Amino acid sequence: MAESPPFFSGVPLTEQLDQVSDIELASSAKQGDEAAFAEIVRRYSPRVFQVASRFFRERATVEDAAQEVFLQAYTHLADFAGRGSLEGWLTRIATTTCLNLVRNVQRRPEGKLATLSADSADDLSNEEANWLDHQLADVAAARHRSAEESLVAADLTDRVLAKLSPDDRLVLLMVDGEEMPVKEVAETTGWSESKVKVQAFRARRRMREAIETLLTGRRKKSPDESESKK
Amino acid sequence: MSDNHILHLLDERPLSSLTATELGQITAHNANCDTCSSAYEAAQIAFALLQERSAVSVEPSPFFQTRVMAAIREKNQEKEADGILKFWQAAKALLTSMAAVVVLLTTLTIYTANTSSTEVSESSLSFNSDPAEAVIYGRANFDEVEITNSDALSDIYGIDLEDSDGK
Predict the structure, then answer these.
(1) Is the predicted ipTM greater than 0.85, yes or no?
(2) Residues A184, A221: one domain?
(3) CA of A137 to nearest chain B CA: how many angstroms apart?
(4) Looking at the domain assignment, is residue B145 inside a domain?
(5) Could you read off the pLDDT of A102-159 as tens digits, one per residue?
(6) Which of A34, A179, A208 sits opposite B10 (nearest CB)?
(7) For A92, which of A214, B80, B123, B144 is 20 to 30 Å away at the CA?
(8) Which of A142, A164, A139 has its CA nearest to residue B41?
């Protein structure tokens, strides 16, 4: 005898779950309906991955973090009262979970923040050095780069961001990277709006100083390179 | 805002949100200030890097949903196992004491049964070993006393033979 398909509110799951509202899904998932929670995962995993991608670059790490986010969400489903959107609630859980994961990594001795020195310019790959040179040559043209160049830029950003605290990184990527309004950043992080502004102000200064240090090292290195080419 | 430098403008808000007036102010200031000029350059690079980094995002794999649901099931099973373990730990003391009581009661029952059966057999043995005379005469130390004919006759017929002989 063929097994009958699972039903949700009397209608076959496969056909109907994608039409069920977030609130209904959350309510069913709270009562232990696994299919409802699976639909939440399907619906919001792109959003959770986007948030996790702010903190991590490697696919495996992003997936691990996203899984942890959904496990946290499943455990705390009872806390979702339905006043705000499910997406907003998940985004906040994702941000907090990823922030904690990064903080935990940095608490370990090998994860301590390194200071950026002018010598760090020596560690740059050829692609990263070229990117910086292009950027210095023509900042305005920076908007029209290939996907490959964008990846180089993302790598370079991670190198610079790795020197900042997790809070600095988060606020910079949200406010300057994604150009999110301060109010939205405050809602997502659970910080006050004034904390977001102060954190962003300090983080911008630290990142600017880190880049200045890198550029100074690069400029010192460039004459040496041109001399050696001669 | 010491020395009218423009650093505060760079750090206060994202570069993209600076107004044309503010940008004009920065350009004018940078013409005569190397410090602010290099700071502005670094701020531009920082902003461009952050924009590039934000554009990079990992997409979920097709198996991600299955993976999460498997992890949830595993977590639920762990929870159930934890619940059983906690229940067992709580019940362990009670069960141990109950087992001890059962063992004690069993031992006592066996011991008591053994003692009473021994007493019965001993009493029945002592009863059976008594000679008929001991029972008739009601003397516990019957074996130690020798009964003469006259004692027997006087006991049976109530005649004191010694007295009648004497008469």
Answers:
(1) no
(2) yes
(3) 11
(4) yes
(5) 888 777 655 554 544 555 556 677 777 777 677 666 655 555 556 677 778 878 888 8
(6) A208
(7) B80
(8) A139
